[in-house]
Design goal:
- This protein has 563 residues and is mainly beta.
- The chain has seven domains: 20-108, Immunoglobulins (Immunoglobulin-like); 113-187, Immunoglobulin-like; 192-259, Immunoglobulin-like (Sandwich); 268-333, Immunoglobulin-like (Sandwich); 339-407, Sandwich (Immunoglobulin-like); 413-479, Immunoglobulin-like (Sandwich); 493-562, Immunoglobulin-like, CATH 2.60.40.
- The protein is 3% helix and 51% strand.
- It contains one helix and 50 strands.
- The radius of gyration is 42 Å and the shape is elongated.
Length: 563
């Protein structure tokens, strides 16, 4: 009678444990509008450890799209199409899964509208800027209402701000959906610069002043002293000259230029490119004079050079009776020779390694990693090739690659027929998936018998021949039990325990019996028949053994002691 009560208790508690998984969630807001984010919040009961959401548009027929799935506890998503959707949730505690729980919610069509232009340049006192809301039509878009940040409620506004301003408009439709659109109006005066040729007037000779500006054309120019309204003027008099430029936005800018008289003129020289790769050429361009003489005897304002080392070039410029000198140094670089290395030769799955690159001055790592440093940390799960680009200034980039071969780690599994036992009751733990094992109990056999006196985590680790290791664990819950201890293999009776020369097995099922020692070696195999079975133990050394029973109910283990 006690045996039946204990077996009934195990069955009932297992059923209650499954029923305690109660999936539930909330959806906020509901209904929502297209383009608006919906938040799903899990409020399930039963301490789930995994969640599986599916989002399915309601519909029928072969054209219904497949559901979208999410595996996070509290997903959020945005719907761009109106309609009615169903969210379903299945939770799991790692051993069992719950029934499906579903909710439906509605996505309303939001306004289809945008602001144009959404980025405008203007200036203080410039033209008035018009900003308009343009609607795209479609359901749920009209009639629309507008609420601008400047207080206007029309679809178009005209503004002339004194500072850069962002204008915001809340656009609402009759179904309660709204969208927010913005337009940026940047306020700035055009920049104006003046270039002198030459930069210092040569006595007795004219100089040319050229005005440059920004913003859209057309431009108008007003020079001081009534010197004209063209973009450039000519003068033979030293002094301060000022120009005011108005662009197409009616924005104005003013700049002054101090033209001094000097027998020396300023010569400017630039290089394109500014840094040169060995074996290539650069063009040196001089300006600020009428004639030029380079240190290589060339008289052109532009010369081509091909230095193999850092080299300085000199040019003398002349304008009438005035002269000036400029120098420029061209830096050279060599083509990079890349070398990539790894911090480890043998790489085990789940570990990390550092890849290092040398041979250039700048680097760009390619997918699946990124960055511009000379090293990256990697953790691949499969054989992966990593590439990096390296470059020296002025030289084309080179590419180096390295393939990391990921060595397999042992896949260890540890199991027991029971994870809940009585205090002090022996239970067999079986490890598989490797050749050698090391338990946290100090034992190194694939099968161990433990007698926990409290809830205990047992772990086992292994290292394979390539040096990779793995660990697995199992938790055995030990609790106080009332009544007589019993054999937990359902519907089987094993006696006597401990056994000596023979073990009797009464079974309502047919199957196979295998007796193993703690090293996993098989000592006896015999068919399991319905009714009474005798397992001979003669000749076996005393100690713990593992009885593996393979029947219609599945694979089960039972530890026995032979004396």
């Amino acid at each position: 009678m006690k045996l039946r009560l204990i077996m009934l208790y195990i069955t009932i508690t297992g059923t209650l444990y499954a029923q305690n998984l109660l999936p539930m969630f909330t959806v906020s807001p509901n209904p929502i509008c297209t383009g608006q984010q919906v938040q799903v919040t899990d409020v399930s009961q039963g301490n789930p450890v995994s969640w599986s959401y599916s989002v399915q548009p309601q519909g029928f027929g072969p054209f219904t799209p497949p559901p979208t799935t999410f595996a996070v506890q509290n997903p959020s998503f945005v719907f761009n199409q109106p309609g009615t959707y169903t969210i379903s949730l299945i939770i799991s505690n790692g051993n069992q899964s719950s029934p499906k729980y579903s909710q439906t919610f509605t996505v309303l069509q939001g306004p289809n509208a945008n602001i144009t232009p959404n980025n405008v340049n203007t200036c203080i006192g410039g033209n008035t800027v018009g900003i308009n809301v343009q609607t795209g039509g479609g359901p749920g878009t009209g009639p629309l209402t507008y609420s601008w940040s400047n207080g206007s409620n029309t679809s178009s506004i005209s503004v002339s701000p004194s500072v850069s301003t962002i204008y915001t408009c809340v656009i609402s439709s009759t179904n309660g959906c709204s969208i927010v659109r913005t337009a940026s109006v940047s306020v700035s005066n055009p920049s104006v610069s003046i270039t002198g040729l030459p930069s210092s007037i040569c006595p007795g000779n004219p100089a040319f002043l050229l005005a440059n500006t920004t913003g859209p054309a057309p431009y108008t120019y007003t020079w001081s002293n009534n010197l004209g309204n063209a973009s450039s003027i000519s003068t033979s008099v030293a002094g301060v000259y000022q120009v005011t430029v108005t662009n197409g936005l009616n924005c104005t800018g003013t700049q002054s230029y101090n033209l001094i008289s000097s027998p020396n003129i300023s010569i400017n020289v630039v290089s394109n490119p500014s840094v040169l790769c060995q074996g290539n050429s650069a063009t040196l361009t001089a300006s600020g004079a009428a004639t030029y003489t380079w240190d290589n005897s060339s008289n052109s304002p532009n010369i081509s050079v091909s230095p193999t080392v850092n080299t300085t070039y000199t040019v003398v410029g002349s304008y009438a009776t005035c002269n000036g000198t400029a120098v420029i140094t061209i830096s050279t670089a060599i083509n990079p020779t890349l070398s990539i290395s790894t911090s480890t030769n043998g790489f085990c799955r789940g570990n990390s390694a550092t890849l290092s690159i040398s041979g250039a001055s700048s680097y760009t790592w390619q997918a699946p990693v990124s960055g511009s440093s000379n090293s990256v940390v990697i953790s691949p799960n499969a054989n992966t090739t990593y590439s990096v680009r390296g470059a020296n200034p002025g030289c084309p980039f080179k590419t180096a690659s390295i393939t990391i071969n990921v060595l397999p780690s042992p896949v260890i599994q540890v199991s027991s027929n029971y994870t809940q036992v009585c205090l002090g009751e022996p239970v067999a733990l079986v490890a598989s998936g490797a050749n050698t094992y090391t338990w946290n109990t100090g034992l190194n056999t694939p099968i161990i018998i433990v007698t926990p006196t409290a809830t205990t985590v047992y772990s086992v680790s292994s290292q394979n021949t390539n040096g990779c290791s793995a660990t697995a664990s199992i938790t055995i819950i030990a609790s106080i039990c009332e009544g007589l201890a019993q054999n937990k293999i359902a519907a089987l009776k094993l006696y006597p325990q401990p056994a000596h020369s023979i073990l009797y097995i009464d079974s309502p099922l047919k199957g196979q019996i295998t007796l193993l020692d703690l090293q996993g070696r098989i000592h006896t195999q015999m068919p399991l028949e319905i009714g009474h079975n005798n397992l001979t133990l003669a000749g076996l050394q005393a100690g713990y053994y593992l009885l593996r029973i393979n029947s219609e109910t599945g694979l089960q283990y039972q530890g026995i002691y032979i004396y």
